[in-house]
Specification:
single chain; 271 residues; alpha/beta; 7-stranded parallel sheet; globular; binds NADPH dihydro-nicotinamide-adenine-dinucleotide phosphate
C-alpha cells in the first residue's frame, strides 16, 4: 500500500523538493501552501495540491478532511511551512512575534491535532517536524524565529513520548543553511524592522553575514528532502537529523563552547 503524506510549505524550497522526491519515490503526496500557482509544476510528479494557510483553521480542517475522504488514512505529516521573523527584540512588534508563533508553532501543532485521530486509529504514523540548527542556539536579531524552533524541539520531544503507545513516531529535521526563499525573506525582514534603529549598525552587518552564509555555505534543498525521505522510510528513525550547510560544525561548536564563548564567536562574525 502506498503511504499517504501531507507536507506543508510545498510551494517553495525544502517542501517543494521533498514533495517532488517523495511523489517520485512512490508515496501519495499532498502538498499544501497558500500559493497554489507556485505548486502547479508538482502535479507533473503526481503531487496533489491543497490550498492551505497554517494560520487559518478552516483551510487546515478542510485540507486534512479532503485527504481522509480520498485516502481513508494519513501515514506521514511533514510540518515544514515556516519563515524567519527577524529584527531586534526591542523593535519587533508583538503582533508580528505572535504571527511568527502562529505560523511556525501553532499551525504545526494544530495539524498534529487534526491528523492524530486517523493515525491513532491506524495504530501507525510518523510526524516529521522541520526545525533548524537554530533550534539549538540563538542569534542576535533572530529571537522570535529561534524561539519558535526551540519551542518546536521541546514540543516534538514531548509529543514523541506521548505517541509511542500508539506506534506513532516523531522526528525532527535540523537543516543548516539551505538556498531557498527563506534567507531573502528573513534578510528583508531584518533590514526593514531594525536596519534604521539604534541596532542598525550591527543589523546591517548581520544582513551581509546572512547573504554570505547563503552564497558560500548554502546547500541545495534536495539535501533536506533526502533526509526527510530517510526519516520516513527508516524502520527505526533517529529522533533528529542535522543536514546541510554547516549544520554539523555549528552544532559541534555550540556543544563544546560555553555560552559566553559562543556569543563571542558569533558576534565576531558581525565585525
Ligand atoms: P521557503 O521560504 O522557500 O518556503 C517556505 C514555505 O512555507 C513556502 O512553501 C510557504 O508557502 C510556506 N508558508 C509560509 N507561511 C505559510 C503559511 N502561513 N501557511 C502555509 N504555508 C506557509 O523556505 P524553506 O524551504 O527554506 O523553509 C522550510 C522550512 O525549513 C521552514 O520551517 C524553515 O524555518 C526551515 N529551515 C530553513 C532553512 C534555510 O536555510 N532555508 C534552515 C533551517 C530551517 P506559501 O507562501 O505559498 O504559503
Amino acid at each position: 500500500m502506498q503511504k499517504v503524506v501531507l507536507i506543508t510549505g510545498a510551494s517553495s524550497g525544502i517542501g517543494k523538493e521533498a514533495a517532488r522526491l517523495l511523489a517520485q519515490s512512490g508515496f501519495r503526496v499532498y502538498g499544501a501552501a497558500r500559493r497554489l500557482e507556485q505548486m502547479q509544476d508538482l502535479t507533473e510528479s503526481g503531487v496533489r495540491l491543497l490550498k492551505m494557510d497554517v494560520t487559518d483553521e478552516p483551510s487546515m480542517v478542510a485540507g486534512v478532511q479532503e485527504i481522509l475522504n480520498a485516502e481513508k488514512r494519513i501515514d506521514v505529516l511533514v510540518n515544514n511551512a515556516g519563515y524567519g521573523s527577524y529584527g531586534s527584540v526591542e523593535d519587533v512588534p508583538l503582533s508580528e512575534a505572535r504571527y511568527q508563533l502562529e505560523v511556525n508553532i501553532f499551525g504545526l501543532a494544530r495539524l498534529c491535532q487534526l491528523v492524530l485521530p486517523a493515525m491513532r486509529a491506524q495504530r501507525s504514523g510518523r510526524i516529521i517536524n522541520i526545525s533548524s540548527i537554530g533550534g539549538s542556539f540563538g542569534e542576535p536579531h533572530g529571537a522570535w524565529y529561534h524561539a519558535t524552533k526551540f519551542a518546536l524541539e521541546g514540543l516534538s520531544d514531548s509529543l514523541r513520548m506521548e505517541l509511542k503507545q500508539f506506534n506513532i513516531d516523531v522526528v525532527v529535521i535540523k537543516p543548516g543553511a539551505i538556498v531557498t526563499e527563506w534567507n531573502t525573506i528573513a534578510r528583508d525582514n531584518l533590514a526593514n524592522v531594525s536596519g534604521k534603529t539604534v541596532y542598525g549598525n550591527l543589523v546591517m552587518k548581520h544582513v551581509k553575514l546572512m547573504e554570505r552564509a547563503d552564497q558560500q555555505m548554502g546547500s541545495k534543498p534536495e539535501v533536506v528532502a533526502k533526509a526527510i525521505k530517510k526519516a520516513i522510510v527508516a524502520s527505526r528513525p533517529r529522533t533528529r537529523y542535522a543536514v546541510g550547510g554547516g549544520a554539523g560544525l555549528v552544532l559541534f561548536m555550540r556543544r563544546i563552547l560555553s555560552d559566553r564563548m559562543f556569543d563571542r564567536m558569533y558576534l565576531s562574525l558581525l565585525r
